[in-house]
Amino acid sequence: ETGVTQTPRHLVMGMTNKKSLKCEQHLGHNAMYWYKQSAKKPLELMFVYSLEERVENNSVPSRFSPECPNSSHLFLHLHTLQPEDSALYLCASSQDLSGIYNEQFFGPGTRLTVL
Amino acid sequence: KQEVTQIPAALSVPEGENLVLNCSFTDSAIYNLQWFRQDPGKGLTSLLLIQSSQREQTSGRLNASLDKSSGRSTLYIAASQPGDSATYLCAPFRGGFKTIFGAGTRLFVKA
């Protein structure tokens, strides 16, 4: 595997379910990101991790819970979601958070549908 | 707060045309700017990264320029092909762990 991978690629869940999205990067990077992309809206940054420590949380509802057990893996735990949370969830990584090495590489995304 | 505008929002051209996609941003204190391509329902593919000290970057038929002082970047696509059809996004990086994305330009190249 190379680059950034995400699983599952598609997920349908009810509002009372609990599920997790997984992201893995094979680039040796130290920073990882979760983004949300809703229809007809720009990408929204949700969480940023650097060296497994969360450094950014853009006022994301608590029903989204990130976890970064090591610099290669990032999870997004989901519970009691709302239909408006249906979106494409994208994971990205970069070498670090400095300006020079901040080129971001994205995974293919997880298409989430909340019924 | 950084605001990013991409013009045009959508573009439909015949194959073979040279194209210009524009990106403007309000906060010129950026470290770099990245151009991405996104196919429908897919992730983003990095096309070019321009550091704030650079004026332009080239990759194949793509050339991106950056005028940091005026808050503008331009992506040139030479000799467009149907395979170039996608949404093109620009993202100026200002620091503070934030990359702000534009809404994108949807490009359709007709065969």
Mean of residue pLDDT of chain B? 93
Low-pLDDT stretches of chain A are none
Stretches with pLDDT under 50, minimum 5 residues of chain B: none
Shape descriptor of chain A reads globular
- Total helices of chain B: the number is 0
What is the CA-atom radius of gyration of chain B, in angstroms? 13 Å
Please state roughly what percent of the residues of chain A sit in beta strands, choosing from under 5%, 5-15%, 15-25%, 25-35%, 35-45% or over 45%: over 45%
In whole angstroms, the N-to-C terminal distance of chain B is 41 Å
Estimate the strand proportion of chain B: over 45%
Give me some keywords for this one.
heterodimer; A: 115 residues; mainly beta; seven-stranded mixed sheet; four-stranded antiparallel sheet; 0% helix; B: 111 residues; six-stranded mixed sheet; five-stranded antiparallel sheet
General description of the model:
The complex is a heterodimer of chains A (115) and B (111). Chain A is mainly β and 115 residues long. Chain A has strands spanning 4-7, 10-13, 18-25, 31-37, 44-50, 53-57, 64-70, 73-79, 87-94, 105-106, 110-114. The mean pLDDT of chain A is 91. The mean pLDDT of chain B is 93. Chain B has 111 residues and is mainly beta. Chain B has strands at residues 4-7, 10-14, 19-25, 32-38, 44-51, 56-59, 62-67, 72-77, 86-95, 98-99, 105-110. Chain B has no helices and eleven strands.
Concise account of the structure shown:
Chain A has 115 residues and is mainly beta. Chain A has strands at 4-7, 10-13, 18-25, 31-37, 44-50, 53-57, 64-70, 73-79, 87-94, 105-106, 110-114. In chain A, strands 2, 4, 5, 6, 9, 10 and 11 form a 7-stranded mixed β-sheet that branches. Chain A has a 4-stranded antiparallel β-sheet with strand order 1-3-8-7, with no helix packed on it.
Could you give the topology of this structure?
The complex is a heterodimer of chains A (115) and B (111).
Chain A: E1 4-7, E2 10-13, E3 18-25, E4 31-37, E5 44-50, E6 53-57, E7 64-70, E8 73-79, E9 87-94, E10 105-106, E11 110-114
Parallel strand pairs in A: 2-11
Antiparallel strand pairs in A: 1-3, 3-8, 4-5, 4-9, 5-6, 7-8, 9-10, 9-11
Chain B: E1 4-7, E2 10-14, E3 19-25, E4 32-38, E5 44-51, E6 56-59, E7 62-67, E8 72-77, E9 86-95, E10 98-99, E11 105-110
Parallel strand pairs in B: 2-11
Antiparallel strand pairs in B: 1-3, 3-8, 4-5, 4-9, 6-7, 7-8, 9-10, 9-11
